[in-house]
Amino acid sequence: MNDAPCYRFPRGMRLLKTDDFSSVFSLRCSRGDAWFQVLSAPNGLPHARLGVVVGKKVDRRAVGRNAIKRLVRETFRTHPEGLVGLDIVVRARRPIAPGERAQARAALLVLLNRSGKCRT
């Protein structure tokens, strides 16, 4: 009846525990560019899970850090293809100016697609 895609980001699709993040950091396949570093590891689940790391060194203001997190989550939710069965941690490397959001989103999509190929 409703053929619209589901863009929710439920709790089961998030990396929440320190152990989950640690396993991705230790068993990782890493890709990076000027804005982001994307680390991935297989999780054995029928869906992908996402964790986002934005430190205070990237942007001192919480508003900027939260904007980066929203951009990453939105990109992950709207482009889930090719990421099934992966735990993904996205680490921000630098602040994103409002005029650079489209470029940063495109760069993140490229990194996510490349990390989908890391399944060893």
From TrEMBL:
Primary enzyme class: hydrolase
Protein keywords: Endonuclease, Hydrolase, Nuclease, RNA-binding, tRNA processing
Catalytic activity annotation: Endonucleolytic cleavage of RNA, removing 5'-extranucleotides from tRNA precursor
Keyword Acyltransferase: no
Entry EC no(s): 3.1.26.5
GO process annotations (BP): tRNA 5'-leader removal
GO cellular component, one term: ribonuclease P complex
GO-annotated molecular function: 3'-tRNA processing endoribonuclease activity; ribonuclease P activity; tRNA binding
InterPro entries on file: Ribosomal_Su5_D2-typ_SF (IPR020568), Ribsml_uS5_D2-typ_fold_subgr (IPR014721), RNase_P (IPR000100), RNase_P_CS (IPR020539)
Taxonomic superkingdom: Bacteria
Subunit structure: Consists of a catalytic RNA component (M1 or rnpB) and a protein subunit.
Similarity comment: family membership: Belongs to the RnpA family.
Function: RNaseP catalyzes the removal of the 5'-leader sequence from pre-tRNA to produce the mature 5'-terminus. It can also cleave other RNA substrates such as 4.5S RNA. The protein component plays an auxiliary but essential role in vivo by binding to the 5'-leader sequence and broadening the substrate specificity of the ribozyme.
Alphabetized NCBIfam families for the sequence: rnpA (TIGR00188)
Name of the protein in its database record: Ribonuclease P protein component
Gene giving rise to this polypeptide: rnpA
